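Hi W., the EPS complex you wanted:
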Amino acid sequence: MLRFLTSGESHGQTLVAILDGIPAGLSINIDRVNEELRSRQQGYGRGARQKIETDTADFVGGVRHGTTTGAPLAILVRNRDWDNWRHVMSVSAVDFDSPEVQEQIKKKEITRFRPGHADLPGTFKFRQKDIRDVLERASARETAARVAVGAVCQELLRAVGVKVVAHVIEVGGIPGNGQVDAMHLDKVQKLVSESEMFCVDPEATEKMKVSVKSAWQEGDSLGGVVEVLADGLPVGLGSYTQWDLKIDGQIAQAVMSTQAIKAVEIGDGVNNSSRPGSQVHDALYPADASTGLPFSRKTNHAGGIEGGMTNGSRLRVRAYMKPIPTMRRGLASLAFPSFTAETAHYERSDVCAVPAASVVVKAMVSFALARAILDKFGGDTMIDTERAVSAYSEYCRTAAVTSAKTEPADVPEMELE
Ligand code: EPS
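Structure:
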């Protein structure tokens, strides 16, 4: 089973991701991986940290001569800012007798909770003495490691004909009006790359920027909504047979685990709850040439998932991000450990990280999809996986003919390479 873990602190030496279960024989396009990392650092509203970092993925395990070996992948994304935090974040014991070291550590100690961040529950949970120990790991800096993992998963998805893109559809209550339902994903990607808010609607981009700027002036922060779209997914990823195999549940878990994401929606999930069934379910029609499947649909309210399985339509996942809790205008809070009244701690942060979140959510959806592909089609090597996917696609294309027969389907033999 495909799985990953990350480790590392926001101002520690490096972030680390271990991605286990990628088949052998997947070529890794390092430029594309680094491009995903670069785009996570972009977007209007990001803090000064992004000027310090130039995130790149350093593969230190599982890849040889540009191709995966089947062993776990180990990926480092180093923190350049580490140089400024060597004493504060030192792994080995530091010399507390040195006044210089003492001063640096004291200066970075965090003694006031930020409401909405992990500070308060994390401090209790691990009996911390310095809230920094919570901040360092709860920080959204960790998402750089997730994006590296997601980018590898995107390489796998690409190899089996699946394309994934993300775009921003709302920031601080300002909606983007770009209609993407009938748009080719390459076009969506192009428009996203032209917008500082990663939004396909240029007018909305400008309005969003104004709103981010005024939030910044007021010492405030803004959230928003991002959408991930995927085309080319085979019918039947995930399963209706068991609760934890349903792909919508798996995607929701992956996306909801992203820092600051507070709601996940598949298709028109929210609005569908107030509409009659006749306006919700996507009627079926005979094949049209575009799908390569023996059926077609005129609508996609379901967002590409029925019964916990992909259904051949475009996958549509929305993630709702709360505003970042670190604000110059600190909320009423408490000091730690005295629990006396204080305003919340502030340190350098983003005003709005919704564009960055779109890249992270795309990474998490890509991971969930790559895992579902490998769950269904298996394969220790990409040759096995690709062969199984194309044999199944062939079956799906011809299902209209074969299902009318009483005999088992005649699946054409795959050519050996
Ligand atoms: C982030 C790096 C962090 C924050 C931000 C995301 O860098 P620093 O704390 O050094 O400024 O800018 O983290 C948060 C929003 C958060 O709440 O922790 C990054 O690389 O994405």
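The mean pLDDT is 94.

W.
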